[in-house]
Structures are given as structure tokens and as C-alpha cells.
Amino acid sequence: MLMLRVQLPDTPGSLGFVATAMGTVDADISAVEIVEKGPGYAIDDFILTLPPSTLPDTLVSACDMLDGVKVLWLSRYPENWGIESDIATLNRMAEDPAHGAEILTEATPVVFHCQWAALFSPDRSVLTSTALAPEFTPEAVDRLNPLDATHSTDLDEGWMAGWGDTVVAVAPLSGGRSLVLGRQGGPEFLASELNRLQHLAALAN
User: Fold this and answer.
1) What is the C-alpha separation between 192 and 106, in angstroms, rounded?
2) In this predicted structure, what is the pLDDT of residue 205?
3) Per-residue confidence at 96, pLDDT binned at 50, 70, 90?
4) Per-residue confidence (pLDDT) for residue 19, from 0 to 100
5) Has residue 82 got a pLDDT over 80?
6) Contact (CB, 8 A) for 75 and 11
7) Taking a C-beta distance cutoff of 8 angstroms, is the pair 150, 199 a contact?
8) Structural class in CATH, domain 86-202
């Protein structure tokens, strides 16, 4: 399964044109999510599959041929992941408020289409993390600063032994805790994504 992030004109029919272009290379679209809207443009994430005989570059070329359409990112997406909305995550947090921070940590890789998430205590140790998260060294945690403010940081290859370029997003939670999300190689966290993350983090107990 693949995740394709596309910038397209925010005009009627644009989404249909992009979906049709993907269909010409036999892409099977499982889900579409609007990530951000700006003056005259929208950024959408497509979760899809391609037949074994179709190269991902063919999909990118089919989209880039459309006027005003730009492929921002293409990456592998775990087969067992779908799309979970912010509201669905908030509902699960509300059902078990005592574990809201842990629920949010587990949900964020799916909600924000990233590879891993980790919840840090006030003393900067890891309280809980998802399966693909790094085993943080103190030096690596320092690279995430500040942990008490919502922001995004690009970490160059080698930021920790064995890890390549990584884009992280950080959001503070109550009690001095912090939530960190990671994307291997990108794409960058958009301002709209950071705003959503900050909102969810503010509601996590």
C-alpha cells in the first residue's frame, strides 16, 4: 500500500481529475483525506495500491501531467493501517480519559500518516511508544528540543545511530509530558497538521 500526498487546485472537479489520472495506471484508491486548504489550493493524502506491474514513478508521472497538480510525497503505507479521524481519536480518548495520552500516542501514526510516536515524561524518559519508534539516547532527545512547545524539526541522517533523515513533530501535554511523532524522510508536517496535533494533545489527560 502507498500514501501519495498531492497538491491540487481547490476548484470543483480537481479531485476527480486526479483520481481519474490515477485510474489510468490502475491505482486502486482506498481512502482520500484532505490535509490542508489554502488560497486556491488543497493538499490531499491518497491511500492506494498499485498492481505489481506498475512502478510508483508511473503514478507520479500521471499526476504531474495535470495542470496545477504537484506530487509532494510518495511512500509505503502499512497494509493494516486505514485512516482514523481526529474525532474518532477524541471519542476513544473520552471513553477512557485516564489513558488519553497513551491512546493518542498509539493513534497518531495512523491519524497523521507517520511511522512512529513516543510519549515522554517530564524527566524526558519514554513512557510509551509505538512499535517502530527509536530507542532514544539522551543526546537524541536533546535534538527534539523544545519539548514544551508545538513545533516541527528536521533531523539529518545520523541524528541517532542507524537512523536516516527524519522529520519530527512535537506537542506538549499536561503534566509536563510531550508527544513526538516521526516521519522517515518526510514529508514535512504542515501547519494544519501541527494545529491538529496541538489540539489533540491539549485534550489528552
Assistant:
1) 20
2) 79
3) very high
4) 96
5) no
6) no
7) no
8) alpha beta
